[in-house]
Amino acid sequence: MLNFIYHNPVKIVFGKGSISELTNLVPKNSKILMTYGGGSIKKNGVYEQVKNALKNFNVIEFGGIEPNPKYETLMKAVETCKKENIDFLLSVGGGSVLDGTKFIAVAAKYENGDPWDILTKDVEIKDAIPLGDVLTLPATGSEMNMWAVISRESTKEKLSFGHPLVYPKFSILDPETTFSLSEWQTANGIVDAFVHIVEQYMTYPVNAEVQDRFAEALMTILIQEGPKALKNPNDYDIRANIMWTATQALNGNIGCGVPQDWATHSIGHELTAFYGLDHARTLAIVLPGVLKHQKSNKEAKLKQYAKRIWNYEGKDAADKAIEFTEQFFRSLGMKTKLKENGIGTEKFDEIAERFEKRGQMLGEHQNIGKKEVKEILHLCLE
Ligand code: NZQ
Ligand code: ZN
Predict the structure, then answer these.
(1) Which distant-in-sequence residues (6+ apart) come within 8 Å of 79 by Cβ?
(2) N or C: which end of the chain has fewer CB within 10 A?
(3) The whole model's pTM is what?
(4) 4 lies in some domain
């Protein structure tokens, strides 16, 4: 196992009716900006629950944060924060609203120039408005991590930043809020969480038994409970298990002390930036390509995964592991090829060059650069 420091300061309040806890969690006398998305919270009763819990607080609202939250939109919220002297941010919605809120938190306090630099340069972040959240979509793990992914419409970029100051002070996870998720969004969440686990697991063995067995347990739960959630959207226990799994998948737990490979996410973000594909939909396409391309480097872990997750042993276990994974995605209604999504080779060069320009090498061996990104994209074509 590699050396690590493990620290996670996020307070989780989980379960039915937990939104009412906001009354005790939000700092008294604070001026709150409540952020939300395109309106799902107004249809499923979450908005009323939040407003009710905060009826004695000073709350201003900022709605309209879109999936793959846009810098252009978020900067409007930054203006509101400055004008209104906001001192607490409350995100109510999915990962996009929460990521957007993390960016608002830092950008509102950033005084060294254009806040876009937070995503493109190694700038110093000194301050942030504290934030909390009510999560309505299990997928990203953003509720228990310090990461955010932000898109910029004008340049077709999608980039991430992370800083301890944007760990939520608390995250409220009420599985009942997820009953209203469509099959499409439910599947997105399952695939996103699954790929987070794979990217912290499918590298090479370092005898990290706790992390490996924990990751395998989480993958097994998604494989077993995922299809059930599509059939029984209002089953509390199924939704609860998926919600807690997605949080555990990216809160630092299974990733500490092990090599990681975020190539699938990095390439996937470019597909969203250029084509607007949903985050999880890009992962279902790219992961099989990355695994095929890196099969020999990942062989030991692919075989372990084939045996422990898919109950398959044999010479072709590495290939079978990739095949089973793709079948799992397809069973959730995902397309796993670029061409099925109407995408051809037209942007391959531009995507690959972006990594070179940023000086970004991908994979646990840092062996995936411009040339390899293009090869991977070709493997994702059809
Ligand atoms: O905008 P509203 O109206 O709220 O509707 C949303 C949105 O259209 C809807 N939705 C959310 N909760 C709902 C609901 N609809 C019905 N009932 C509910 N309970 O779902 C749609 C998608 O929401 P979004 O927040 O975009 O989805 P998700 O949570 O998957 O977030 C995706 C974003 O997170 C980033 C992705 O790149 C993407 O931008 N990621 C963030 C990470 C992190 N911070 O650690 C890691 C991830 O790998 C990921 O990259
Ligand atoms: Zn993801």
Answers:
(1) none
(2) C
(3) 0.98
(4) no
Beta bridge partners of 131: 89
Please tell me the distance between residue 67's alpha carbon and the centre of ligand 1 in angstroms: 6
The answer to whether residues 360 and 216 belong to one domain is yes
Average pLDDT score over residue span 252-271: 98
Burial of 306 (0-12, 13-18, 19+ CB in 10 A): buried
My answer on whether 287 and 211 are in the same domain is yes
Domain presence at residue 321:
yes
Over residues 350-367, the mean pLDDT reads 97
Q: Which of 148, 177, 206 is the C-terminal boundary of a domain?
A: 177
Domain that holds residue 84: 11-177
CA-CA distance, 218 to 248, in Å (whole number)?
A: 8
Q: What is the pLDDT of residues 9-62, one digit of tens each?
A: 999 999 999 999 999 999 999 999 999 999 999 999 999 999 999 999 999 999
Mean pLDDT of 288-303: 98
Q: Percent of the chain at pLDDT above 70?
A: 100
Atom 28 of ligand 1, nearest CA residue: 95
Best of 47, 73, 266, 279 for a ligand 1 pocket test (most atoms within 8 Å of beta carbon): 279
CA-based R_g, the chain, Å: 20
The verdict on 271 and 364 lying in the same domain is yes
Beta strands in 41-144 (DSSP E): 58-62, 88-93, 131-135
Residue 360, Cβ density class (10 Å: 0-12 exposed, 13-18 middle, ≥19 buried) = middle
CA angle 219–212–195, rounded 5-degree value: 40
Q: What is the mean pLDDT of residues 78-85?
A: 98
Angle, nearest 10°, between helix axes 279-293 and 370-379?
100
Q: Looking at the structure, do residues 189 and 106 belong to the same domain, yes or no?
A: no
pLDDT of amino acid 309: 98
Binding site membership of 133 for ligand 1 (Cβ less than 6 Å) = no
- Distance of CA 59 from the midpoint of ligand 2 (Å): 31
